[in-house]
Structures are given as C-alpha cells and as structure tokens.
Amino acid sequence: MSNIFYVGIDLGTSRTSLATSTGKRITARTCVGYPKDIVSRKRFGKAYLLGDEALANRLGLNMIWPLGEGVIRNDEKSVEATGLILRHIIAEALPEKKESDKIYAAVGVPAQASLTNKRAIIDITRDIIDKILIVSEPFAVAYSVDRFDEVLIIDIGAGTTDLCRMHGSVPEAEDQITLKIAGNFLDEVITEAILEKFPQVQLTPQIVRRIKEKYGYVSDVSEPVKVTLTEKGIPSEYEITEILRESCLKLTQPVCEAVQKLVGTFDADFQEKLRNNIIIAGGGSRLKGIDRAVEKSLENYGGGNAATVQDAEYCGSIGALKMAMEMPEEYWEKI
Ligand SMILES: Nc1ncnc2c1ncn2[C@@H]1O[C@H](COP(=O)(O)OP(=O)(O)OP(=O)(O)O)[C@@H](O)[C@H]1O
Ligand SMILES: [Mg+2]
Q1: Which domains does the chain have, with CATH numbers?
Q2: For the whole model, what pTM was predicted?
Q3: What's residue 309's pLDDT?
Q4: Scanning 68, 82, 131, 211, which has its CA 20 to 30 A from the CA of 100?
Q5: What is the CA(152)–ligand 2 centre distance, in A?
C-alpha cells in the first residue's frame, strides 16, 4: 500500500515554510553554508550546514542565499542549495514516508514569477516530490484565510512585496503588482540611515534585522527607540526613533501607492468592498502600524479596512497545502 502525502511549501527569499497533510509545520531560513576551508571542514565535519545552524556558524562558512527577489537565482550553486534545503525540510517533515509513498507538493511562487522560474522549481524538485502544483503566493494567502471574494492581499516578504486583488476567479496580470521593495530593502535603508547619523557604529545585517523586527514602526508616535551599538567594540546607547520611522515609511509608502492603484483601477462597483477587505501577510506584516498606514492611504478613496494575518510564518504554506488537498488530479504536473 502506498500513501500520498500532501505538502504546501512557501519557498521564500528569507524563509522557507512547509505544512503537511500529516499536520507538521516546519520553517527554516533559506540559506546554506559551505565550510570556508580545511579547518572549518574539520570543525563542522560535514559538507554543508543548513538554515539557522549555518547562520549561527557563518564566520566559518561561505553563505549562499539561493533566492533573490523571491525567485531562485540563476546559477548552479543556488540551484543546488535550493535542492538541499527542500530535500532536507521535506525529509524532516515526513519521517514516516516509505519508498513507495508519494509526495504531492504545492509550491508558492511570487505572483509574477516567470516561466523560467517555475521550470527551475520543477527541475529542482524532480527527484524529491512526485507531483507538483505551482501556485501564486498571494493566492495561497487568500486560500489560507478562506477568502475567495473581493479581497486585496498584500504579502510583504524579504525580497518582494506582492499585491493581488481577488475577485472570485483566477487573478490576471492587471490584478497583481510585485514590488522589489520589501524586508531586505528596508534593512538596507535602515543601515544607510543609521550610518549617516552615526558613521562609526558597527552594523551587520543580523543586527539591523533584529532592530527592525523589534522596533520598526510606521505609526505616528512611538516610545523612544534606544539601541545599544558598538564603536570599535565599545558599546553605547543610540537614539534612533525618528531614523527608524523615516526608514520604515520608505517601505510602506510605495506599498500604499500600489494599493491605491489596485483599488483605483478596479471595477467601480466593487472598489468599496476591496478597500474594506485588505489582508496583509508575510513577515513585513509585523511592522508596527502597517495596517493603519494602509488604511490612512485610502482616506481620499473613501477609507479602508486592513488586517494583518494571525500566522505570518505559515499562512503561505498552509494555503498552498489547502490548495494541494483540494486540487483535482488534472491540475497536477507530473514530474
Ligand atoms: N516584526 C517585524 N517587523 C518588520 N519586519 C519583519 C518583522 N518580522 C519579520 N520581518 C521581515 O520579514 C521578512 C521575511 O518575511 P517572509 O518570511 O514573509 O519573507 P520570504 O517569504 O522569505 O520572502 P519573499 O516572499 O520575498 O520571497 C524579513 O525581511 C524579516 O526581517
Ligand atoms: Mg514570501
């Protein structure tokens, strides 16, 4: 007897999440570290480290982040690294899988991913899964919250922000906008802004990301944000309240403009419904005040109502899993 396992995969620039029909949920950073030299090879005792383990040991590793702007980078190393991550995360999620069992996986890709990107995913997963369904990420988010009526999904990831308006059928090109302005972009903006004011402080991508995730905000007011940073190793406290807000607005402003565009070009009879049903997903949805910022940007349009998803980490993979489990046989691509 062979079983079919269904999995939903959200292959993201910063994180890959997976949900299975057996109820498992796993998430891992989308990175692989290869030992830098003979010393680190000996220390780690293996050819590569994955995800958080790699990040924690990154000083001894050459780090590969195989996705850029939501899609797999077009080079051999990235393709290999993506395969390693997917293979590992699937094996970890389905320890009970036997040789004869089958895996049917729905994989989320950015709304406007090209055919080449989709082919790359199919090629990479060829010997890991048996049948594949490539799904649009914002569509997967809508699925995860069971919304198939008029709703506007905003998925703010690390590499891209994907916006998509739903209207009860498969979204078309004019329903979608992909911005390359997302979490990674915001990290760069914050880094530049801090260094402009305090040129001597020592920053790493990890430090900046932690500051952003803990204190980032776009609300009108915030308690003062003071962080401890070092200058030539000597720690002091730095006040970055205003720097942080201005930086975060550089992410939310273009997102709000894209929202206005998708509302403004929608069927006039349904614009009000769309304005009042905005769902914000992805890691960026955790930015404090982002829902209000989107609502405020719609004041001239008659107002709006935006909510952030409960489970930013898994809503993409859970939506993909739901689609996988409901999809009739003829929609699957056999690989
Ligand atoms: N509290 C927070 N405030 C602001 N940003 C956050 C917060 N928590 C996470 N993020 C950011 O969200 C981003 C990760 O989001 P997510 O996991 O949805 O991205 P992804 O799916 O890997 O990327 P993509 O969809 O672009 O491929 C990172 O840039 C992370 O720093
Ligand atoms: Mg994503």
Answers
A1: 4-30+65-142+314-334 (3.30.420.40), 147-308 (3.30.420.40)
A2: 0.93
A3: 96
A4: 82
A5: 16
